[in-house]
Structure formats: structure tokens, C-alpha cells
Design goal:
The chain is an alpha+beta fold. It is 30% helix and 43% strand.
């Protein structure tokens, strides 16, 4: 019993030390970026806005023809993603952005976003906290999205807000 209590105290102590050492990243509204980073942050925001508007035609030149989109239910290419958005089956209603990091790797750029996404999926409204990884490639001087990956978050802002609701006709 004494060993159990000492083990429990050690675990709780380590948890407290870890929690105290973790710092929340700078909130999105307070972040600053270089001009090169800002170009990608703005492009990412444009993508969220166009997806919310279900404007597949405006998204087409931004999405690389060979891009891949990784969701909780699978992965698919550009045409399937544009069809799902344009038909309203997958409606990215609102991305609440908490933090964005931009990293350059050679000629590519990675945009890491901490978000809570409100989406219409069929007849359901789904609220899910995600980390989103976007890979951008420059094609003839223009950035294009090459990969869009959603990873469900279990910690951080809104991590307790996962919700699926049947809302009738979500379109």
C-alpha cells in the first residue's frame, strides 16, 4: 500500500511539473509573421473562407491537381475533395483558428494550424478540434496546396468540444 501511495504521489508530481512547463502558443490574433510566412497564412485563410462558401471553382486553382486530403474517414484526391465541397456534402462552415506556425523546407512550405472546425457532413453538424497540416508547393511562382491533413486534437483549446449533431438538412 505504501508503495502504491508513493507511486501515485510521483505520478501526480510529474504531471504537475509537466503541466507547469507547457506553455500555450501565442494566440492567433497576437501572432506576427515575416512577409513570406504571412503570404501562406493569408492563403490558408482564403482556403478556409472559400471552403465555408462552398466555392469549389475558386478553390480549384489553389489545390494542386495531385493534392491529397486526409480526413478522419479516409483520404482522397483533389477532384473528390472539390466535388464534396461543391455538392455541399462536406461543408467547412467555420474554422476557429487558435494558432498558426509556418515552416519552410527547401522550396516547400508547411502550415500548421490549431483549429476547432464546425462542419456539415451530410445531415450532421460536427464540431471537432484539429491540428491541420497543409503542405504548399510553389508551381510556376504560385503557391498551391499539395496536402491537407486533419489530426484530431485531444488537448489544447476547445479539446472538450467534440460534438456531432443531427441538424436535418445541413445544406
Amino acid at each position: 500500500m505504501k508503495r502504491f501511495i508513493l507511486t501515485l504521489i510521483a505520478i501526480v508530481s510529474l504531471s504537475i511539473v509537466h503541466a507547469q512547463s507547457f506553455q500555450m502558443p501565442t494566440p492567433y490574433a497576437e501572432q506576427t509573421w515575416s512577409d513570406a510566412e504571412k503570404e501562406l497564412v493569408d492563403l490558408q485563410q482564403k482556403i478556409w473562407d472559400l471552403m465555408a462558401a462552398k466555392d469549389a471553382d475558386a478553390l480549384r486553382p489553389i489545390f494542386h491537381p495531385e493534392a491529397m486530403f486526409v480526413h478522419m474517414g479516409g483520404y482522397w484526391g483533389t477532384e473528390q475533395e472539390l466535388r464534396a465541397i461543391g455538392d455541399g456534402f462536406l461543408w467547412y462552415k467555420k474554422a476557429e483558428i487558435f494558432h498558426v506556425d509556418v515552416k519552410f523546407v527547401g522550396d516547400d512550405a508547411l502550415v500548421y494550424s490549431t483549429i476547432t472546425l464546425t462542419a456539415g457532413l451530410g445531415n450532421n453538424e460536427v464540431i471537432t478540434p484539429f491540428y491541420v497540416t497543409s503542405l504548399f508547393k510553389k508551381n510556376e511562382g504560385v503557391w498551391q496546396l499539395g496536402s491537407f491533413v486533419f489530426t484530431t486534437r485531444v488537448s489544447g483549446p476547445d479539446s472538450d468540444k467534440v460534438r456531432i449533431e443531427h441538424v436535418g438538412d445541413a445544406h
